[in-house]
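cron nightly-structures :: item 1 of 1
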Amino acid sequence: MKSKLTAVALAAVVVAGTAATAIPASAATAKAEPTRCHTADLKAGFAMGDDAKPEMEQSEKQTQAYIWFTNQSQRTCTLSGFAGVDMTGAQATDGTWSLARSSEKPTKMTLEQGDTVGFSVNLLPVAGSTPQKEKFVPAKFLVTPPDETEHFTLKWPFGGQILKQDGATHPGTYLNPIGL
């Protein structure tokens, strides 16, 4: 009798073990996909390396400034799309200029803790001889991460002046999506 109980118990363990390994992988606990980054998860700034600084002293062509976001949270998060960028001017007549977006297609960027991603702002500098009413003198950039409402205030560190096209359909100053 003892051997029959042992055999039944052993068979139950084998069946239980087989049943546990027969669970499909899709039913196993899946790792959660990262959610989007919030303003509080990030820090932001202008790229300041020599190759990243815009050429504001010239006025023959567009130049680019680069803005970065770093994930300072304890979790992995994603950014996709365009940041919101409003420039405030140093002159009383400048006001605030909300930058238009390029036609570039955004991609989803995944940022682990400490990862940095950036985007570029195309700028159209003007010569000093350009009439004052056609100049925009940047003072601050209000930068809002995609799908957020809170912004970072970044002081413009590069000097120079931009051709004022805040009402243009296709301005020479505009922004690109995250990752470009």
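cron nightly-structures :: done
The first strand starts at residue 35 and ends at 36.
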